[in-house]
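Hi there, hope your week has been kind to you so far. No rush at all, and the record is pasted right below.
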Amino acid sequence: MATGLFSSSSTRKRNGGHGESPIEDQLHEIREDIAALVGLLSERGAAVSHDAKAKAKGARDRAEADLENLLTSGEQLLSDLRDRYSGTEREIRRAVREHPIATLGAAAAIGLIAAALLRR
């Protein structure tokens, strides 16, 4: 009697093809279980994908809102700085016009101090 890989086919032939019916039934059940498992995995993957997309959209929306707030506050800060320094610029120009010799002396003193510091 042959044993091994092809023994079932010879038994099936001898028994009229009905010798392996329980194994075929088990294989059919296993195939159905695998198909059900694949279906469950597919559904779970779709749900996870949907959740990930929703979270990504929420994060993107929050990032866009934060960026918009940052740009708005940056523009406001820049406007405040311009206003503040334009007033300072006007005061410096007025001081230079009123005291030109003192301004030249101050600039020369600052130049000498900077040169002395750079030599070290």
About this structure: Confidence is low (pLDDT under 50) at residues 1-18. Residues 102 and 110 are 12 Å apart (CA to CA). The two ends are 104 Å apart (CA to CA).
